[in-house]
Specification:
Layout (H helix, E strand, L loop, with lengths): L1 E2 L8 E11 L7 E17 L18 E3 L3 H10 L18 E3 L1 E2 L1 E20 L5 E17 L7 E2 L10 E11 L2 E10 L2 E3 L6 E3 L5 E8 L9 E8 L29 E8 L2
Parallel strand pairs: 1-6
Antiparallel strand pairs: 2-3, 3-7, 4-5, 7-8, 8-9, 8-10, 10-11, 11-14, 12-13, 14-15, 15-16
Length: 272
């Protein structure tokens, strides 16, 4: 069973953050920034069984599993469900049901998310006034854990499959010469662990590289006001690692990684 729950309560959270920003006098045009953030949720709405393959074997899910249900219990669950999917590959037979796993949304007892953000920027002129370079880089390190009820253990979220990775980063470099701009962007999505089955398996990171060339003319004349951009996204055709899953699920971590490979786009705009 999965989906909504009429007994859910509103989520509540307490958050705080601290940020330090530096503009080094010796490096004009530079900015350094570092932040710490901490969010503590109460009654966070979550799925209590996030590892379907462990529903019957992992004792932390015991409160949400009914073993050897009666025919009346099975019929009541099927009747109450707005939709029913038979994923067994065989004809539905209530007599063969050995357990009911209720993964309907619940309010978790506690969930904490905290981490560090870092940002660096640098802008400087080269040659004449129409030429400049912009550099930037930012990264986040994230940790998150939750405890659904006081009697259940604390579980790690960040760094596991279908949850945010510990590390994300993005860097870019841009060169402008008059109406022309060349920009490259490298994104990094860290690896995660697939802990749904033993032994755990590491799902590799992704680092797609994008390039964009832009020509932009400004002014009221009809010969001006054009913006032309040619982009090459995911230049090296980086793709997410395959993972095991149920037949109707995507065979990759769709929460974190994009399946879109290399592609080229061209846009032309005119303003008056």
């Amino acid at each position: 069973m999965s989906g909504g729950n009429a007994d859910l309560r509103p989520e509540r959270a307490t958050s705080w953050s601290a940020t330090l920003v530096l503009h080094p006098p010796a490096l004009r045009g530079a900015q350094l920034e570092i932040s710490y953030f901490d969010t503590r949720y109460r009654d966070r709405i979550v799925t209590p069984i996030d590892r379907a393959s462990q529903a019957l074997s992992n004792p932390i899910y015991a409160d949400y599993v009914t073993l050897n249900p009666t025919a009346a219990q099975v019929a009541a669950r099927v009747t109450a469900s707005p939709s029913f999917v038979n994923a067994s590959g065989a004809a539905y037979n209530p007599a063969t049901i050995v357990a009911i796993a209720d993964a309907s949304n619940v309010n978790a007892g506690k969930q904490r998310i905290h981490g560090v953000d870092a940002l660096a920027r640098y802008h400087f002129q080269i040659g004449d006034a129409d030429q400049s370079i912009d550099l930037s880089a930012n990264a986040t390190y994230l940790t998150s854990k939750q405890q659904i009820t006081p009697t259940l253990p604390v579980t790690t979220l960040a760094g596991t499959v279908f949850n945010p990775p510990h590390v994300r980063a993005r860097s870019s470099a841009s060169w402008r010469d008059g109406a022309f701009t060349l920009t490259s962007t490298l994104s990094y999505i860290g690896s995660v662990m697939d802990t749904r089955a033993a032994p755990s398996r590491r799902i590799g990171s992704m680092a797609p590289l994008d390039l964009t060339v832009r020509y932009n003319t400004k002014g009221p004349d009809t010969s001006r006001g054009f913006d032309v951009a040619l982009s090459l996204q995911n230049m090296f055709n980086d793709t997410p690692a395959s993972i095991a899953g149920i037949f109707f699920e995507a065979p990759y971590d769709s929460t974190n990684y994009s399946p879109v490979g290399r592609y080229v786009s061209l846009s032309i705009a005119k303003s008056w």
